[in-house]
Design goal:
seven-stranded mixed beta sheet, six-stranded parallel beta sheet, Quinone Oxidoreductase, Chain A, domain 1, alpha/beta
């Protein structure tokens, strides 16, 4: 085995460079993963720009990581050498803060976040907390599984935890990196699925993904159309635009929920009237635990849900990241190492 490996690190804000690093041994409760694939997520931009609070550079980004365990730290018994595993945005908890003590580990106040608090998966090798990894089903390739560990988990958990019932009218705002998975999950969960996008060119894709109805916001007001259908029990807001999200509250049914999973750079402007008169609500949903990730992968296998992917070699991470940031990816960029080829 080589004593060094390639990694792509943020050496300074806005600078991604390929470096050679020394292979290290996993510590207690950790595993070393030989990475096969790592998705590029929009959240990685907070690492690349250096804007994530408390971030220290240099840092290797990446939190949609799939690979095989090649070394175990002391005290690790659940996992085996050679086992294929994944790591998402939630890479471990401190176990002692108030949210953790209340079994709300996703909102841990001192979480392990690959690509932020520790080095992530834009690399051939990664050290991960054993408590933060998930088993990958044989039915999924590493490239397919990678985006499901974040984009998939985020949309799947948001929908399954929203208190909805089969047949409910559920809208998904955005037909992009998150939205194209949210539409698939909503349809296969048995919801009357409405996709909301801008431009008629997205209608065929939205319906191919499972949407029963497509609303083109360039031609129609989404809230008005939804109210004409009786109002949505939930709207999953995935496209990062505060201007687009805020008005959707008026398209909710009584007691309906606007669930925000895409984080817009601009402010959301809200009218209090539909919130107060009708008991509507708006809240955010963030990722999930490792066992939630295994649920996401299992459901994706069961219902044949897959992300739409473009791949690039690890060494081309900077170009692939730029493609994602510029909105040119269709719809998830995944970096592939030499171990993930084939």
């Amino acid at each position: 085995m080589n004593n060094t490996y390639k990694a792509v690190e943020v050496s300074a804000p806005g600078v991604l460079r390929v470096v050679e690093r020394q292979v290290s041994e996993p510590g207690a409760g950790q595993v070393r993963i030989r990475v096969e694939a790592c998705g590029i997520c929009h959240t990685d931009s907070a690492t690349v720009t250096g804007d994530f609070p408390g971030l220290n550079l240099p840092r290797v980004p990446g939190h949609e990581v799939v690979g095989r365990i090649e070394a175990l730290g002391s005290g690790v018994s659940r996992w085996k050498i050679g086992q294929r595993v994944g790591v998402g945005f939630f890479g471990g908890e401190d176990g002692v803060c108030e949210p953790c003590r209340r079994e709300d580990r996703v909102n841990c106040q001192n979480p392990v976040v690959p690509g932020v608090t520790v080095d992530g998966g834009y690399a051939e090798v990664m050290i991960a907390e054993a408590r933060g990894i998930s088993a990958i089903p044989d039915e999924l390739t590493s490239v397919e599984a990678a985006p499901l560990l974040c984009a998939g988990l985020t949309t799947y958990n948001a929908l399954r935890n929203a208190g909805l019932r089969g047949g409910d009218l559920v809208a998904v705002q955005g037909v992009g990196g998150l939205g194209h998975l949210g539409i698939q999950f909503a349809r296969h969960m048995g919801f009357h699925t409405v996709a909301i996008g801008r431009g008629g060119d997205k209608e065929k894709l939205a319906k191919d993904l499972g949407a029963h109805v497509y609303i083109d916001t360039a031609a129609d007001d989404a809230a008005t159309v939804l109210q004409g259908m009786g109002g949505a029990r939930a709207i999953l807001a995935t496209a990062p635009s505060g201007d687009a999200m805020g008005p959707l509250v008026s398209g909710l049914a009584v007691r309906g929920k606007l669930i925000v999973v895409g984080v817009p750079p601009d402010q959301m402007r809200l009218s209090a009237f539909p919130l107060v008169f009708g008991g509507r609500s708006i809240y955010g949903s963030l990722t999930g635990t490792p066992i939630d990730n295994e649920d996401t992968l299992a459901f994706s296998v069961l219902q044949n849900i897959r992300p739409m992917i473009e791949t690039a070699p690890l060494e081309q991470a900077a170009d692939a990241y730029a493609r994602m940031i510029q909105g040119k990816a269709r719809f998830r960029m995944v970096l592939v190492t030499k171990d993930g080829v084939g």
